[in-house]
Amino acid sequence: MTADIHIRKEGRAGRITLTRPKALNALSYEMAMAIEAALEDWRTDDDVALILIDAEGDKAFCAGGDIQQLYDTGRAGDYDFGRRFWADEYRLNAKIAGYPKPYIAFMQGFVMGGGVGISCHGSHRITCESTQIAMPECGIGLVPDVGGSLILARAPGRMGEYLGTTGTRMGPDDAIYAEFADTYVPQLMWPTLIAKLIETGDPSLITDHAQTPPPGPLRALTPQITQHFSGETLRDILNALRAEDSDFARDTVKSLSRNSPLSMACTIEMIHRLRGPAADIGRALGLEYRFTYRAMEQGDFLEGIRAAIIDKDRKPHWKHGLDSLPGSAVAQMLQPLGKDALTLEEAKT
User: Fold this and answer.
1) Is beta strand 132-134 parallel, antiparallel or unpaired with respect to 110-112?
2) Which residues are catalytic?
């Protein structure tokens, strides 16, 4: 147990509350492992009818993973810590996706990166007025991970490519449309709903509290997104955007120009590989791990963190330019890992 998370049983619910609001409830390795241990304990506990995960504070459910230690160890040339962090976190994500009991997430404020992994794979994903869900990993030299690549692949049309490469934030209506969330419940109603869920263990009560969220912009943008993001590669998408003189095209190119070209190109390839009924959470996490395993040593991750978090100059020096990414770079980052491949059943060390 850690002071950053409060895990307990209340009534019919197994309750998980993230308790580090000053850090936007960033998910540390210890927090992730505490969640996994609780889920294992409650899997066969007949007193626990459902899991309820929420967080303290108004700004964020969980704004991502706690990456300071990843950066420090990577800069020191220790890539094993990051690889272990990601492997264990991904196994947690898979357990949430396949959990045999209802898993209900209350997602206020920022829900990003690692926060998506512990909420958006649940069976019941609740938004409110302040919800802002995003997968902004390309901005720090990663790819949308924690199973987020699978959700992106299942989004309508080419929405996944757009959201994954630009890191666009989704309000409640957009998140429901893109299939990152299920329900909109005004936050004032959350205490009453949570109390009823704890008392009854009946997730069907969520429907009684659900409302229609205010409309977001993504539905109206779908035709433009489909038109410009249907290419096979990052270059195809850039060419389509640059060929059109519109606010959408100009703004989108500007967004893409800030992010790691290698990460964006790999994101597009991953989404394409995962699109279709044969893809599942295990395949998605395994593909993501191929990238994150190499991210520090061969990718842009350490430079992305330096520019965004450490020096905060917002001027990353990516390994490749937006128009000079070699075709072999994506294949190199996503090639199989052999004996180092992610194994979801593997015991932690």
Assistant:
1) parallel
2) 65, 114, 137, 145
Paired tokens of 147: 């199973």
SS3 296: helix
Residue type, 313: D
Q: How far apart are CA 54 and CA 246, in angstroms?
A: 40
Q: Return the sign of the alpha-carbon dihedral for residues 59, 69, 349, 138.
A: positive
Please say whether the beta carbons of 131 and 172 come within 8 A.
yes
- What is the C-alpha to C-alpha distance for residues 128 and 132, in angstroms, rounded to an integer? 9
- Sheet with 60-62, side-by-side order of all strands: 60-62, 110-112, 132-134
Note the residue count of the chain: 349
pLDDT digits (tens, 9 = 90+) for 256-311: 999 999 999 999 999 999 998 889 999 999 999 999 999 999 999 999 999 998 99
Alpha-helix residue ranges (DSSP H) falling in the chain? 29-43, 68-75, 80-97, 114-117, 148-154, 159-166, 172-177, 190-200, 205-209, 218-228, 234-242, 247-257, 261-274, 281-298, 301-305, 328-334
Taking the mean position of all CA atoms in its chain, how far away is CA 181? 12
Q: Which helix (H) or strand (E) holds 105?
A: strand 103-107
Rounded distance between C-alpha atoms, residue 197 and residue 221, angstroms: 36
Contacts of 281 (CB under 8 A, 6+ apart): 93, 94, 97, 98, 121, 147, 150
- pLDDT tens for 83-97 read 999 999 999 999 999
Number of Cβ within 10 Å of residue 240's Cβ equals 16
* Tokens at 195, concatenated: 């109390």
Tokens 């995960």 found at: 53
Q: For residue 191, what are its two tokens? A: 């205490």
